[in-house]
Amino acid sequence: MDLQILISFVAATAVLAFSPGPDNIFVLIQSAKYGKKTGMAVVVGLMTGCLIHTSLVAFGLSTLIKSNESLYFILKLFGAGYMLFLATRVYKSDVNFNKNHKKVKSDRFYELFKQGFIMNVLNPKVSVFFLAFFPAFLFSETMDLYKQFYALGFIFILTSFSIFSCFVFLSSYFSKLFFKSPQRQLLLKLLQMGFFVGIAVVILIG
Fold this sequence. Notes:
The chain is 79% helix and 0% strand. By secondary structure, the chain is an all-alpha fold.
């Protein structure tokens, strides 16, 4: 087991969770507007949805790799290409992360949990992202592939949950610090682009 790979995976996941995106901005604004309980309900729902995507990738992808060794190289190319595609999407996106954000009415914990869960599960881009992201961080030559994918999935969920929880409990501070200044929003946009390009390089040379 290569601990350095796992540490790198945690660091990459933390940067990704912190970078502005639909999920964490949704959590941040929900928390700032309707309270911490609302934000945590959404976070738990989103992270539970990640379990479904992890299972799809773990069983489907590990089976394919076992049946075709050259597929791993193809997946690396796919993963690097997808990361560069995401960087391009960020480049073309509006720097104003608050623009056209859809306000959601506060409701009971279960209803908000369900909303976060469904929002995640019905987004096929999550599975595609896992498919591109996880193979670059396989950390063992002896552990079964599906077990490694599940391990990475749980690490991804725990790390993202921790970061998203910080957004919840510091929602007022974060919203003032990052989303009220166009210059800081531009900086976050550049950092997010750099992150995706960096991951593409890691995938190709890994």
